[in-house]
Each structure stands twice: as structure tokens, then as C-alpha cells.
Specification:
The chain has four helices and four strands; from the N terminus they run βαβαβαβα. By secondary structure, it is of the alpha/beta class.
């Protein structure tokens, strides 16, 4: 099954749109959702979090974003994307550039993990040291 990853910039979406997205998620089969957010999800964050729980959405709170140099947040989001590559992932943040960098970082990590596993298999099969330098 091919899953899509979605990016949500919460500062540009109304609460009604977020509610509609969550309600659409709730009627799908075999879809896992993770929302990475920056510690605050708007003024109605409690209601939003309750809606997420009701629809089986997982919320992952990341450190507050202060500026675009918060690489820890990028690494955290990227790690989630790399581990949950078969899930729909919603990122709620006030820093679009940082979130896009995190998505790219996660995709890169996923690719690197696959390459390492392939190389380990080749080493096992051929009994030779894998060449990890390209």
C-alpha cells in the first residue's frame, strides 16, 4: 500500500480545516497518522488534541521553534519520518522551511538505512566487506 506524507502549516490553516482533515482521516482504513507539532497547536490546542485522540492520531511534541536554526527539531521530525515511512505524517509547525528540511532529512535517513541494510545483506551473502563509500 502506498502512503502519502502530508505537511500542514498550522499557522495558515483554520481550526475548521484541521477538523475536516481529521474527520477524513477517521474514515480511512489502515492509515496511521503522526502529527509533529511545536508545543502549541493554536489557541484551541486542547480541543484539537482531543480530536486527534478520538481519531487515533498520534501527537509528538517537539521543542518550541524559535528560529530556523533549530536543528534538533529537524533531526527529531526527520527521525520520525524515517521510522514511520509507511504512515501518513502531518507536521504542524510555524516554520515551513525547517519542516521541509526535516522531511528531506527523514527521506535521506530512510534511504541511508535501506542502503546499509542492503550492504549488510551483500556482506553476508558474499562474505566480503561492503563498500559504503560511493
Amino acid at each position: 500500500m502506498n502512503h502519502e506524507r502530508h505537511y500542514i502549516d498550522g499557522d495558515q490553516l483554520s481550526q475548521e480545516i484541521l477538523q475536516r482533515i481529521l474527520s477524513q482521516i477517521g474514515v480511512k482504513d489502515n492509515v496511521a497518522i503522526t502529527i509533529v507539532h511545536n508545543g502549541t497547536i493554536g489557541r484551541r490546542s486542547v480541543a484539537f488534541c482531543n480530536m486527534c485522540k478520538a481519531t487515533g492520531v498520534v501527537l509528538l511534541e517537539a521543542p518550541l521553534i524559535k528560529n530556523g536554526t533549530d536543528f534538533y527539531l529537524m533531526a527529531l521530525i526527520g527521525g520520525v519520518i524515517a521510522k514511520k515511512y509507511n504512515s501518513d505524517i502531518f507536521i504542524h509547525t510555524n516554520d515551513k522551511a525547517l519542516a521541509k528540511a526535516a522531511i528531506n532529512y527523514g527521506a535521506m535517513n530512510l534511504y541511508m538505512v535501506e542502503q546499509v541494510l542492503i550492504n549488510k545483506d551483500q556482506k553476508y551473502l558474499s562474505n566480503e566487506k561492503p563498500n559504503l563509500i560511493s
